[in-house]
Amino acid sequence: MSSPPPARRGFYRQEVTKTAWEVRAVYQDLQPVGSGAYGAVCSAVDSRTGAKVAIKKLYRPFQSELFAKRAYRELRLLKHMRHENVIGLLDVFTPDETLDDFTDFISMLLVSSTGT
């Protein structure tokens, strides 16, 4: 079995609870938080600011039209929500380099005691 291609520039690859994560290099110290039917969540630290963040990786978000709509709806809602009891959306990225390879995206949620 061949090894996976190297992580693209500005990203690194790490296995967390038997799942391969490829995240931006600024997000360090990935630690598992939980998982469910649609994805998994890890905590990390933004090395630029020191802020603790939650990283959500969706499993097969484009497997079906229903999954794609669900993922899109979650992103749209989180983008506009500003409430002390809702974690705000900080970043969304994909490790894929081209649209032909685009199968995965990862949302970044800011977990900060200051509410920012």
From TrEMBL:
From the Swiss-Prot or TrEMBL record, give the protein name. Answer: mitogen-activated protein kinase
Which residues are in the Protein kinase domain?
27-116
GO MF terms here are: ATP binding; MAP kinase activity
Tell me the Gene3D superfamilies matching this sequence.
Phosphorylase Kinase, domain 1
* EC number annotated for this UniProt entry: 2.7.11.24
Stored Pfam families: Pkinase
UniProt superkingdom: Eukaryota
What organism is recorded for this protein? Answer: Equus asinus (Donkey)
What cofactors does the UniProt entry give for this protein?
A: Mg(2+)
The question of whether Membrane is a record keyword is answered with no
